[in-house]
Amino acid sequence: MPLDYTNSVPLYIQLKDRIEEKVLHGTYTGKVPSERELMDEYYISRSTVRQAFDALTREGRLSKNREKELLSL
What GO molecular function terms would the record report (predicted)? Predict the structure, then answer.
């Protein structure tokens, strides 16, 4: 399901929220999908995915390593 381009909320925030939702519902466990997988799933650019990852990392919810491991929600 694509993100809402007409929404006033930035795409990277929408993606960050989707990732958090999927973790809470058990869709993602241990690590999030790759940048490429998220780009393809949500029809967004790599920079949007990286902004979402950076936001999750700043909040302490994602460990920024090759595996993009989830820390907590």
Answer: DNA binding; DNA-binding transcription factor activity
Residue 22: pLDDT band (50, 70, 90) is very high
Query: Domain residues of the chain, as ranges?
Result: 11-70
Question: 33-45 pLDDT, tens per residue?
Answer: 989 999 999 999 9
May I ask the CATH class of domain 11-70? mainly alpha
Beta bridge partners of 63: 69
Count of helices and strands (H, E) across the chain:
3, 2
Amino acid, single-letter form, for residue 66: R
Query: The tokens of 52 are what?
Result: 């979402």
- 8 by DSSP, 3-state: which? coil
